[in-house]
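Standup notes, protein team

Yesterday: finished cleaning the Anopheles christyi set.
Today: Ig-like domain-containing protein structure.
Blockers: none.

Input for Ig-like domain-containing protein:
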Amino acid sequence: ICKAFNQFGEQKLEIHLTISNELVAHIHPQIQIINSGNSALLNCSIYGSEVNKIEWFHNGQELFANGRSERSMSMLSANTLKIDRVSKKDQGIYQCIVSNARSSAQGSSELKLGESPPEISYGFVEQNVRASAYISLKCSAAGSPPPQFVWLLDYQPILDVSSLHRYTMDQFLDINSHVTTHLNISHVHSDDGGLYTCVASNSMGTTSHKARLNVY
């Protein structure tokens, strides 16, 4: 209160000063590693003054914008985000941005994918080849742990795969953590025609891709 007065009277001015703590936000946990198919919870803890608004973002994109629903995501409360059936698309950086009339703050967290079943990223197509030709069939798959491949012909395992046979197979892990395999057939015979299948498996599951090889 500030007062001023003289013989003619007095005046006073009242000023109310409110001191509030700095607005701070954190997401717990800050790093999560979740296996494919499991659920994840992200909790935005807020400290300081009163908050008027909480917004959630995934890799820079606002979640639930304009009331939009999100695949496999739901809000248990304004502070808690739940992700059901975590998949590769859910990886990345999550942010909660909190604000009031005076300031704003943000917290962030990283969600990493742990073990996941194989997914075919490349598969060979149906082909028509002449007898005695050379052919190479290619499959690629991603997964964690890295998948292993086996090859089938008309649903039967191809067992004679060696440098001494017309069938050879290779398998390697590329820089994108995809496993790539080739089935190579030298001097194709008519009985090499049929339905070929590459099967990728790891501890989380199995997937496959198939296409025909027609020999004429």
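Follow-up from PR in the comments: The chain has a mean pLDDT of 90.
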